[in-house]
Amino acid sequence: MEIQAKFTFDEMWEKFLACDRAHDGLFFTCVKTTKIYCRPSCRSRKPKKRNVEFCFSVEEAENRGFRACKRCQPEIGQSPAIEFTQRVIAFLRGHYDQKIGLDEVAAHIGMSPSYVDRLFKQETGETPRSYLEKIRIDKAADLLANTGKTNLEISLEAGFQSTSHFYKVFRQLKQQSPGDYRKAKGARHNG
Q1: Is 69 a catalytic residue?
Q2: Taking every annotated instance into account, which residue ranges of this chain make up the domain HTH araC/xylS-type (predicted)?
Q3: What percent of the chain has pLDDT over 90?
């Protein structure tokens, strides 16, 4: 079953630096200088960002001339729980801009909402809802840094139904307001 989520380079880099096990199998980190590819959760020493590229399958990495890391063994198959987690993450990433709840995620996966919630939390340490909010904030941060859109436009485009909730969650996750984040990133402004 082919599962491919939409990621920016910076999102994948962030997940790789965090050794995020929940993203194993969704993409692979390829180090140009060593010609080795790894899982996002690999605990090996991290390369410089400029020496990294990302692939979405073992075959793609190997076709580009990379060999599997001996530490994380990315070429070995995964457990059903990892596939489940990948399916939930792919669904959340593909629908972050829509109004979705646990019922929609569970229906897509074909399991009960309580089981999806429990298993996802067991595998990732967070609920599908909190994970979805992180995706939305990452998208909003990218828009703040790279566009001149208003905070309202960004809030809606990132999937938030309420601007006050957007501001609250943004401040919780980024430790600053959207406006301060935009200023710190030196983003373009309308005007």
Answers
A1: yes
A2: 86-184
A3: 68
- Check if CATH label 3.40.10.10 holds for domain 9-68: yes
- List residues bridging with 37 in a β-sheet: 30, 68
Confidence of residue 20 (pLDDT cuts 50, 70, 90): confident
Catalytic residue among 19, 30, 42, 55: 42
pTM to 2 decimals?
A: 0.65
| DSSP code, position 125 | S
Q: Indicate the domain borders of the chain.
A: 9-68, 79-191
| CATH, domain range 79-191 | 1.10.10.60
How confident is the model over 30-45, as pLDDT tens digits? 999 999 999 998 888 8
Q: Which of 19, 30, 55, 69 is catalytic?
A: 69
Cα–Cα distance measured from residue 71 to residue 90, given in angstroms and rounded to the nearest whole number: 26
pLDDT at 9 over 80: yes
Q: Does the annotation mark 55 as catalytic?
A: no
Instruction: Name the pairing type of β-strands 28-31 and 52-55.
Output: antiparallel
